[in-house]
Structures
1.
Amino acid sequence: MAQERKNNYRTRVETVLSTCGEPVQALLLDLLQETERLSEENGRLRQALVKASRASGMSSKLKDALYE
């Protein structure tokens, strides 16, 4: 789904680029690159979070003993 959205943004930006001035073109391209970078970073952070949640899990017996 994220890839589809990224492609949609890229297509929309490419359509608009031909109708605007150079400063706006530069801004749009910068924003598109930043969006792609943040999307990739978000994916890496999600994976790290999943790994961290798996690694730090206590057994249910240990949890029960600590809460008593």
2.
Amino acid sequence: MTHRQTLHNRAILITNGASALSQALCEQLIKAYKCRVALVSDGRSTVTKQRQNESAQLFVCDVTNRQQVAELAVTLEKHFGPLDMVIHQDCAMRNGNFPEPEEHYVIHTSNDILAFINLLTIFVPPMLRDGRTGGRFITVKNSPGSAKAFTDSQPVYNDLVRSIVPSCKAPESIRLSTIFCNGIDHKLTPFGLMLGEHEIAQRILEGIESERSIAQVSVRRSWLEFCSISAIQLAAVALEKLQLGGSENSY
């Protein structure tokens, strides 16, 4: 499977579908890769209705509820057939790497584990059914700590895949990958350094295409990138003023 084939013309489920990042991922997967995308939201947040078309459809599901995930799988099978990829964001993606109250951390971690297990055990088996060769399960984390905990547990998750799929090659057929986004902190990042959602989405998709089991995505521009962009913008403004001044003097 080449890098472009990793994403091209795939049926993909994206959780946390009400977030701007998930919707940016959806748009790029449809436009650049001709994918069919299921955006899944828990219903507590609003997903823009314009996102729904022939290639993208919206579904309400609490991914921590196993019964709801099972029902979602039946519905998606009718719309898309077996999925090729699941992109799972944390159940509670926070803006920033700042500490959170312990009780919130415990709830978020518990919910994320439940969601991961539900999605993995329900959507992975169909990826190897009827002669299919496998699929991808991508987890998006927004802090180094959560990403490290996930990757440290990867052998356990490989064992889990073996236990639910009757194939000794299951871990190789169902690739588990982690994309960790560092520096998601809009409030503390200087103006102009933070990437937009579409730029972050593009970097995440590049990380998925890399086929690495763990990929780090920077969501901030380097100072060199920032200065280069600023210089180009200033040059464009200066050129526009010069052209405007030349037009006025010609009268």
3.
Amino acid sequence: MTNRKAVLSALFLTCFAAAAGAAATDTIAADTIAARQLDEVVVKGEKPQMKRLDAIMVVDLPGIVRDKPVNNILEALGYLPGVTNNNGMIGLAGASVVTIILNGEQTAMPLQNLYQLLYTTPVDRLKNVEVMYSAPAKYHCNGAVINVVLKTPTLLDGLQGQVRAGYNQAHYGSYGSALAAAYAVRDWTFDLNYGLSRTKSWSREETWSDHLLDGQRTMIEDDMRRIGRNLSNTIFASVSWKTLKVTYNGQIISHQKSRSLSSGTLGSFTNVYEMLSPVNYHDIALRYVAPFGMTVGADYTFYSENRSKRPLKIKTIPISEISDVKLCSPAMGAIRICGSGGWFGWYGWFKENDLGKYFAYYGKASDCFLVSLKDGRKYMLGCKDAPEMVDAIKSRVF
């Protein structure tokens, strides 16, 4: 019995040793696999073009226009999702009014100057655009807002600059150029943007209208041609030291002149609008951000213009054709047959129950007098010294 136990024990130990040896052999075989170089692994990702932060939609506009024929920020805004273009005015779909701000701050410059600044600023200076349909209180704006965020120069950027020039040929040729530069050193940053444009425009508008007067159809025709020109200089400059920043915006428009020529049923007229001196706009803004977050600032704005308007062709009424002249104020309920009336005066054909049909050319109703001709035509005219004018005409006629 004892020998049988000894044989079984020896047999068990032999099997255990064999199993252990096999396991060791498998382990050694696994460890002896030759090392192999893996192929290059490339992980690709794309930056989201739009992301929402609370009520603000941050748009990566530089990424959207990267492959588009865009040179400046104003052109880039045309590719912003939801943006509409209403005769050159930027709007947002679903918003009646939109305010454009720069780097989170409103600008004191007129909208035309702001558009000119965005037009002369290269798209490379754009960081992103923030769209808000209901702006937070910190922006001090009501309604929809487009916040154009520009890149801030850093020490690693060094001196950056860009020079552009362009020419556009329409009815007349126009040309422009722009210079942009940015520089950072230690705690100082400098930014400069200058644009020069020489523009000459031309437009033509033909209108036909069929009016029913006293049971008869009357065709009114008008052919309006407009020619305008100007030389514009736009300057944007900023200097900042730590949290103190001084910004200057300026625009000087010279050689500004426009002429309108109208011919048709109501006669032929030519008016010239001319700036007697350059239009000057200058704005200086100072901003300081305290360590505890409070912002303190001040702004100074200066604007001046000297405009003239003169007719090149004056309608003449011979004294011999006048049958009567008297002081007369037009009625508030006068029927406008064909003409215009409002802030810039009244011009065209009107009709009243007492006076009948007359041609109006006046600015203020209180300065009017009525001239009646022997052939039945009537003119409602206006001038500052209406009583003296009526007396002078009467002394020549009667």
4.
Amino acid sequence: MRGEGSLLAVVALGGGIGALARYGIAHAMPTREIPWATLITNVIGCLLIGILMVLITEVWTAHRLLRPFLGVGVLGGFTTFSTYAVEVRGLLASGNYPIAFGYLFGTVIAALAAVLVGCGAHGSSPVPSPGKESDMSYSRTEMRLSIILGQDDLWHHKPKYQEIVKRARAAGLSGASVWRGVEGYGASAHIHTTRLLDLADGLPLLVVAVDTEERIRGFLDGIGELLTEATVTLEGVERVHFTEDRP
């Protein structure tokens, strides 16, 4: 499997870092009646996993090894629900039922809350300014170019999507945007996904540009060498231009 060695290496490295961090917390907070070290470790880990999920799916277009390093390695080694289960059993065996059940259910509730807080920690949607209205100025028929390729497809050691956008700007196209897919497969029939524990790389990307048909076709003719493993579609669209209606 392509890149399997590097994936295993970063997961192992991250796991070691996470385990050392967990050990440091446990050493600083020796277990007493309530296993605070394990509780704090798991809650912090869940908070960080929530933040990481938002970053890797909505914010970052990061190196393919960053997700397995941080998510599977560091945070996987840091959190310890096996220790949590053993500690619950120990509390039950000692007959300390109130603390045992409080720890059992409290950890789950706190962990879920931490994930939700982490997922909601990245910004908020902008609120439109009141009192401003928009008015359609005009529309015209243009062409939309859509290119589907893999996040890890390279051109001279750089991502192909970056080269396509760079050339689109140089060609004078009115704009080009890149969207990252959360799941998909191509000719290899291997499903790539953003799920945190999935080590697959090669997430699908969509590059879109809209301009006149003449410009789009001319641009497409000039980037053929970048599209050997891509899916390309052309569609006629109506571009609508809006202007702000100011008093």
